[in-house]
Design goal:
Elements lengths: L1 H5 L8 H4 L1 H5 L6 E7 L9 E10 L9 H7 L5 E8 L8 H15 L5 E6 L5 H6 L4 E6 L7 E6 L1 H4 L2
Parallel strand pairs: 3-4
Antiparallel strand pairs: 1-2, 2-3, 4-6, 5-6
Length: 160
């Protein structure tokens, strides 16, 4: 996914991908959601259809304007990350299901606010988040190098 749609691995941005177990499994305030799809019996088992995750904290301060960093100071922020769906499983509701579960889990954990960012240059990414229940656009950073658009999730709209 990193190679195909985001131009490759950047350790400054994708450090969690290098250590999924260490970052998401068993760490307080984090969660990794995985959607597996059963298929024909094969040597590799079920297909990985998609992922989503939640981690504590807002966007990395070195990559956002100072006013956005200040917006999250002193708050218990949860960030939805790594909502990725395999191309063969797109347009089937996998991404929506994973993102809703991630947002509801974060809100249930007491995160306030729940935020996320997306790379608007990835086909379908911006449309996905602008149509997501309760997603409010906070900052459009384009033309930054990553075509970043930031959102927050309104828990009243999501129905958490």
């Amino acid at each position: 996914m990193l190679e195909r749609e985001l131009g490759g691995h950047d350790p400054r941005l994708h450090d969690d991908v290098d250590d999924l177990a260490g970052i998401y499994l068993g760490a307080a305030g984090t969660r990794l959601f995985v959607c597996l799809v059963e298929g024909p019996d094969g040597p590799d088992g079920p297909d990985l259809a998609g992922t989503a995750s939640v981690r504590a904290g807002g966007p990395k301060p070195q990559f956002v304007p100072s006013w956005l960093t200040r917006r999250y100071e002193g708050r218990r922020v949860g960030q939805i990350c790594r909502v990725w769906v395999d191309p063969g499983h797109r347009r089937l509701g996998v991404g929506r299901m994973l993102a809703v579960e991630a947002a509801r889990w974060a809100l249930g954990e007491g995160y306030d606010p729940v935020c996320l960012h997306t790379n608007a240059s990835v086909p379908g990414a911006l449309a996905f988040w602008t149509s997501f229940p309760g997603a409010t656009l906070i900052h459009d950073a384009r033309p930054d190098p990553w075509s970043t658009v930031h959102f927050e999730i309104d828990p009243a709209v999501l129905g958490a």
